Amino acid sequence: MSKIETTADRAVPARRSASGTFARIARYTLVRGLTLVITVIIGVYLAILIANGGGYVDKIREGQIREQISLSIAGNEALRDMTMQERREYEQNLVAIELSRRGLDQPFMVRSFRYLWNGLTLDLGSAEYLLSDSGSRQVRNILGERLGPTLLLMATGQLLLFFTSVFFALFLSRRYGSVIDRIVVAMAPTSAAPAWFYGIFLILIFAGLLGWLPFGGMVDAPPPPSPWLRALSVIKHLVLPVGAIVVSSIFYTSYYWRTFFLIYSSEDYVDMAKAKGLPSGAIERRYVLRPTLPTIVTSFALTLIGLWTGAIVLETVFGWPGIGRLTQMAINLFDTPVIVGTVVIYAYLLALTVFLLDIVYAIVDPRVKLGGGERRS
Amino acid sequence: MTRLANLFRELRSYPSAVAGVSVIVIMVIIAIYAMVTIPYSEAVRLWRGGDNVWLETPRNARPAWINNFRREKLPESIIMKTTEDPSLKTVMDLGGGLATSDMLFEFDYYYDAFPSEISMFFTAQFKSARPNVSIKWVTPDGREIRLTDLTVRQSESYRISQDSAVSRRLGGVLPEKGLFADPNDPSKVNKGTYQVVVEGLVFEEGSTLDGSLIVYGQVHGLAGTDHRRRDIMVALLWGTPVALAFGLLAAVGSSLTTMTLAAAAVWFGGWVDYAIRRINEIVMILPLLPILIMVGLFYSRSIWAILGVVILLSIFGSGILTYRSMFLQVKQSGYIEAARAYGASNARIIFRYMVPKVIPVLIPQFVAQVPNYVFLEATLAVLGLGDPVLPTWGKLLNDAYTSGALFNGHYYWVLEPAFLLVVTGLGFAMLGFALDRIFNPRLRGL
Q1: A342 near B CB under 8 A
Q2: Interface pTM, i.e. ipTM
Q3: How many CA atoms lie within 13 A of A85 on its CB side?
Q4: Which of A185, A241, A248, B199 could bridge to A195 as Cys pair (CB 3.0-4.6 Å)?
Q5: Chain B CB within 8 Å of residue A53 CB
Q6: Nearest CB to A2: which of B317, B384, B436?
Q7: Rg, Å, chain B Cα set
């Protein structure tokens, strides 16, 4: 629920040729894309430094290697005749070979860059405990399998939230001071609680007390055989988590945007348009919605960024088989490669969100120039 | 001072601000009460639990006040101890070291539901020969049911509910149901006065025997208990200071540092400004929650370590850009020029002239941020990364979630911490909204 300054500078309508706009957006997109790639690289590197802070993860790995080797030596009949001294030397030797094979004998700086590359390509080796549904131990496969459900849930929830609240806010700004408007203003502080929190109540009411909708999961178990029924079952399971996303933010976003629309509809040029006798729909589209669009997009971007990581608990609460639920499972099992993988995935998703919104921003706000520092007012 | 007085006068005209302030004041009072009545170490000890801390409370009991809303009354726990009430015990010396030590536990049971468990505990002192007890259950209609015979060690517990022999004698029903059931309609409670008769025998001079009977109810105290018999009230009380401290410290810490950084960026300009903006871009794509999860897993789960990382990561973000644009305007003001002319140092200009100028904008934002951090603590706890020793609201929710409270119908377990979280969050959010309108005149009347 971050706030953007309400007294943002106002747009001056400017006309440019279509080709000029296209070149501008293309150049802008390229530069933004490059900056974001660099940002992601640095971000992932930081995440890896944190994950491996003080060589903690390496120590775990080294311990595992030692244990494996000493177990295999203990079980090896051929080595029975060796003395303790010989056997220990043999073991040390094997450990050293294994360490250098995995690159653990290199200095940390060198290793960290290899980790960085592995992290960026999501080549994180195999998970320690978790399996993908198809039985693979590869972190990449495990994450890939979970990406779809997360995208489905978040895209549905966020698009629904965005469009409902924009239209609801326009509706409220037209009925300024009415009962429903006052109710929304009074309800705005309820958005202080995150989506998963409302999720608990929705589960309690609709699954626990009324029994209309399932407690969690993504499809019925066992999944219905026909694709139509399966889709229907997924939709049924989507209702509550999406509902939680919408309910948790709708009052605040509606209140915030309605206030914004009200401020802009008291501008002189709006009065002028009214005096000209333009229909109210045209006034809203051309004189209210257009200058406020950049700010709306910005505030939506910030909601999105907040929601991405909020999904971790939302999915946990609803047992939704996405990245968030995976993160929670990995935490409980202490599965380091998977945890690092989810951090990287979330960094990618956030960067992608920022990137897409930058492009949308460049399209809706004609003033955006390269390197404009005040984009996020 | 007059400005402050004006602010309070203005606040009073907003009902939401009054409500918000009252909630915050009540929460602070609860927090102080919790810290005074249950010291920190006691709270940790109680929440860690163990064998002897929560022996006398029922498992998963609902709060006692729900009986006021039910026609069928749920039982409260009945606890009787010979150590506390010596009249329950009659000792008769038989000579030669031999003595009887009989106990009679008599209690009225007029509830409409069965108890959740029945247990007996004995303590004995002896040198080598263990005392003997034989226990018998007498129902209101005079039936006698033999329970068991025991030789008692120094401390002996007899869980009647888990005694399969008793269950078999009652015809295969659970002892806590069978012992209280109406013989004509086994689904109903046979109301009346019950007796548990213990015939004890000690074999040595100076040997003593004490016993207690606990009929665990289905309700307990103001808040109920959890799956480990802990009184939820402890966590509700202690969660308050933790939530307030976490929320306030995180909000104050992050907003003050953000503002100082933004002021420095604007004042020094050049590469400082550039660096801060680039760092900001990087931090914006760092996912806060996964990073916190890694810190919790690999470094420390202590709530204060997490708090530090939260502040560190929250310094950057959209806020810094807002402040930056404000400071850009402040930098042009005449009084900054004047300060520079008299030779004020950089630090003096930043802390004495620039930062105070935007503090009014900061206050509503800071108040409105508090609930986010209060919920962040709960979020981490729900993910299983709560503070390992302290009881918090989030940890209650986590315990409830992992033991399927909603699925099993233990709604109170979820609703109580959730209610406190909502109330606290709403209190700060409502105050923040009101302050926002007072400090942002453009919003007034909207």
Answers
A1: yes
A2: 0.74
A3: 0
A4: A248
A5: yes
A6: B317
A7: 31
